[in-house]
Design brief:
single chain; 316 residues; alpha+beta; 13 strands; 27% helix; globular
Length: 316
């Protein structure tokens, strides 16, 4: 069982439960950790977030001193490099989180809506279908637990899980045994909630004679959690290309299934004239947004919260 196939099958399974699922996202503050699968649990104001935009709201725009009340001169509202601030304004306006107007040659902005408390929880899943080839699994999971960026951490595997396996990973990590063929999931061990509100310790590098770590403040972690949730909300899990091959036959969940290989395929790495089963064709058209919207509370094209639809972007 390859990790790519396993990961897509698990994402499709979790999405069928109505969860907001994404994959391959940075789960670090100062390090280089990439989380295989991220699940965002909707919070109390999720509907307000969904109504603003289907895209990511820029961190700089969220953290700025721009509010939904009186419009502010944009340069006075940001505590970051002007280029980053200008880009954040452009994206926030484009995505419906800011509206802007021109006064006396200056650009003023305001929020179309207060940024809501929409994140109910974050679940990080490390996919390791074959525990006989663990790689850096132990160090990765220790990093996830000590940093506590996600509320819960789970190891998902297709292997039979023994006591020896459980002893090699942190006690706080939950364990799922998942069969991608039948899409059945057995909870071997429930995850322990992590202290996400406080500081954390991030593993940066580990060598035989030295381990480099860095303390992460509660404020840094809160910022990283929000950014992670925003990326997950916007990206989803269908962030792959479909092969330009007649053998590609996506199922009802939109996975890039190859009929000749009888499995999901990574188009960029294993599809093309070098494959014996290759039959050149136009890539299949799959409406991933429609699939996601049908299975989860994510809204692909919300009405937005702009209060005034005319005159906001006329620059004199």
């Amino acid at each position: 069982m390859r990790e790519f196939d396993f990961e897509l099958a698990l994402c499709a399974h979790l999405e069928r439960e109505g969860r907001l699922v994404s994959r391959q996202l940075g789960g670090h503050v100062h390090g280089r950790r990439v989380l295989d699968t991220v699940v965002v649990e909707p919070g109390p104001e999720f509907d307000e977030r969904a109504a603003i935009t289907a895209d990511r709201i820029p961190t700089a725009a969220i953290e700025s001193d721009v509010g939904p009340g009186r419009a502010r001169y944009w340069k006075d509202a940001f505590d970051c490099h002007p280029d980053r601030a200008e880009r954040a304004v452009e994206l926030a306006v484009e995505r419906g989180f800011f509206e802007r107007e021109r006064r006396g040659g200056r650009t003023y902005v305001r929020q179309t809506a207060r940024y809501p408390d929409w994140i109910g929880g974050l679940l990080a899943v490390e996919n390791k279908p074959d525990l006989g080839r663990p790689g850096d699994l132990e160090a990765q999971l220790r990093t996830d637990v000590s940093l506590a960026l996600a509320d819960r951490v789970v190891l998902a595997t297709a292997s039979y899980v023994t006591g020896a396996h459980l002893n090699r990973i942190p006690d706080a990590v939950g364990v799922w045994r998942f069969d991608p063929e039948t899409e059945t999931r057995e909870v071997v061990r429930e995850p322990t909630p992590l202290p996400t509100d406080g500081p954390g310790v991030e593993l940066l590098d580990e060598r035989p004679t030295r381990t480099d770590v860095r303390v992460v403040t509660a404020a840094e972690k809160a910022r990283a959690r929000r950014a992670l949730a925003e990326r997950a909300y916007a990206k989803g899990w269908r962030s792959f290309d479909y092969p330009a091959c007649a053998r590609c036959d996506p199922g009802g969940d939109g996975r890039p299934r190859c009929a000749w290989k009888a499995r999901d395929v990574l188009a960029s790495a294993e599809c093309g004239p070098d494959c014996e089963g290759y039959q050149a064709a136009t890539p299949p058209e799959v409406d991933g947004d429609a699939l996601r919207a049908d299975r989860t509370p994510w809204i692909p094209d919300p009405d937005g919260r702009r209060r005034r639809q005319s005159g906001l972007d006329r620059f004199g």
